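User: My collaborator sent over this chain with a note saying "see what the structure looks like." That's all I know about it. Can you take a look?
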Amino acid sequence: MGLVLSDVGADQILNAYFNDSWPVSKNLKIRLFTNDYTPVDTSILSNFTEAAGGGYAAKNLTNGSWTVFAANDPSDAVYPKQTWTFTGPLTGSATIYGYYIEDNAGNSGVYIWGERLGASFKPANNTDQLGVIPKFELSKGVPT
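Assistant: Without extra context I'll predict from the sequence alone. Here is the result:
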């Protein structure tokens, strides 16, 4: 079972889950996907086809690097820009449609969230780059 908090507000939940010491090893992995799919709340990892080839590798998002902008309503949580530099085309000249975040700690294999890019991206040449800034709004909804 994961962390369960009373309704203490979105900022505190984010800090407990991503930035504080619960659990110490909590890390997330950001992956790019190549199937023409739009992530939804009920998505699971098998909905995504991860990019392959062209020098691609998933990246770790570690504790303590999230910035919460509490002045916004609802608050925004932002992680520093992640940039992939490709060595050439992906396997099968695939197109990148977005990214998804996976739990990379003891519960490896748990989908956290995903997002489509504003425009698809197809790396073709050595040094082609794609940058993503993981950002989401924190809900202040009523717990169920």
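A starting point for your reply to your collaborator: Helices lie at 10-19.
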